[in-house]
Amino acid sequence: MNDGRRERLIKLASAAVFLTIVAVAVLIVVSQSGSSGGDSENIVAVAEVERELQGIPQDGMVLGQPDAKVTLLEFADLQCPVCKGYSEEFLPQVIENQVRSGEAKLDYRTFTIIDTNSIPAAEAAIAASKQGRGWNYVEIFYRNQGEEGTDYVSDEFLTAIARAAKVPDIARWNHDRRSTSVEAEVEEATAEAERLGFEGTPSFAVQGPGTQGLEALGLLQSADAIESAISAAH
Amino acid sequence: MKAPAEGTLRGIATFLATFGIGVATYIAIADSGGGSPVCIAGGHGCQTVAESSYSHVLGVNIAVFGIVGYVVLLTCALLRGDLARMTGFLASLVGFGYSVYLTYLELFKIEAICQWCVASAVLMTLLFVANATRMLAYVGREP
Description:
The structure holds two protein chains of two kinds. Chain A has two domains: 1-34; 39-232, Glutaredoxin (3-Layer(aba) Sandwich). Helices cover 53% and strands 12% of the residues of chain A. Chain A is built from nine helices and six strands; from the N terminus they run ααβββαβαααααββα. Chain A has a six-stranded mixed beta sheet with strand order 1-2-4-3-5-6. In chain A, α2 packs antiparallel against α5 (134-143), α4 packs antiparallel against α5 and α4 (118-129) crosses α7. The relative contact order of chain A is 0.16. Chain B has a two-stranded antiparallel sheet. In chain B, α1 packs antiparallel against α3 (62-78), α1 (6-32) runs antiparallel to α5 and α4 runs antiparallel to α5. In chain B, a hairpin with a 2-residue loop joins β1 (56-57) and β2 (60-61). Chain B is elongated, with a radius of gyration of 16 Å. By secondary structure, chain B is mostly helical. The chains are: A alpha+beta, B mainly alpha.
């Protein structure tokens, strides 16, 4: 037995344990301080969104069976954190219970009120909708939304979302999102929200057999409130 | 407390590392086919984890690093002497530390659990216990 050698090796092992603890702590701290969204290199929740929307028809920005009697319009800004919360917490329940069953359609309208970056984001989503991937675009955007006012809405970020949303023809999407017709669509959606008297996002409106034309609802506070509004419109 | 015989510890480590090679190889093969590992208990945790950006480092699936790690651990378990004891300890320490980090990512960043990753983390933890016990009890002593 060589006690000196044994002691040295155990000291070496202790140092390795210490270094490993430090390394793991550093890795965890770095991952926490890393981007909390808005990162085109790290688009998340793609599969989750794919599952949420799978099998539901999309026509432009309208999600749901074409013959659904009730249409719920959501006026929202892709940069709005409250809209992100709705998209993650409330809408999945509504999509699963009322859209998938053919009871209602969801019509996403871009209401660009946060800042000028909201406009290219809205144009990107509408351009994706021209290829049947508008809702995928919106939902993946929300799940990767950056912090407000951090200018994360770059061409690179918008393109990364388009790829994640599986927009089939990226060249066409790039052309569409810069077209005057899409620009006009974005302006018109915001003008419509203002006509309905909306001042914040998300704001809802509903149309169905039980409503008199398009009824402005404003902010609905929960998934249950959204579901009730849809039921009442039948 | 008396440590188990070194042969017993090496036998345990051999078994665990062989099992680990199997798990890591399955994850790597599932990924290379363009898919993701299938959760035996159902659910989409494995798909979510496999599709996250954390599943690859420098373009290489981390399961490949796992295979390398388990092969090193298997080799150390099969060999005698201080070099095998120290290398086995250091490799299992790195593997265990990295498993802690990956489990943290699953729980708090990816927010999905993949049972194959959990299986690997458990194997790596047990390998660390076996290798640490072997090193502490027998390093610096005759094989």
